[in-house]
Design brief:
Elements: E1 27-29, E2 35-44, E3 51-58, E4 61-66, E5 70-73, E6 78-80, H1 84-88, H2 96-102, H3 104-123
Parallel strand pairs: 1-6
Antiparallel strand pairs: 1-2, 2-3, 3-4, 5-6
Length: about 120
């Protein structure tokens, strides 16, 4: 006789989705089934547009989960490949200042362009 496992709301995490459309506040569950937090945002590499990881909100603050540690992203849940104990030791994400520094040359060019346009306007 075959035994059937019934699917409950706890077991069903929905269809797999892209990291680009994962909703903020989606629950994040560890490999051992413990909810460790919620999704804050998904990150991608700058030039290649490849999934880099997710930032999650936990009771201890924001934590960064690297891409290899994310097993599945679904409509109703993100599942990790690490245990809850390992998730508690995750590092905080890098600040936004790093991104600003990476784009500093672009900002300088834009300011220079704006200054030169202003000078041309004043000279007319």
């Amino acid at each position: 006789m075959a035994s059937w496992r019934t699917v409950t709301d706890d077991d069903d995490d929905g269809q797999a989705i892209s990291y680009k459309v994962v909703a903020r506040g989606t629950p994040v569950r560890s490999a051992d089934g413990v909810e460790v937090g919620t999704v804050r945002r998904a990150l991608e590499t700058g030039r290649e547009h490849i999934f880099d990881g997710i930032v999650i909100d936990t009771k201890a603050g924001k934590r960064f989960v690297d891409a290899p540690e994310v097993a599945r992203i679904a409509e109703r849940r993100v599942t990790l490949t690490i245990s809850a104990a390992e998730a508690a030791e995750l590092p905080p994400p890098l600040g936004g200042m790093r991104q600003r520094v990476d784009q500093a040359t672009t900002v300088r060019r834009a300011k220079r362009f704006g200054r030169s346009m202003r000078e041309r306007w004043d000279r007319r």
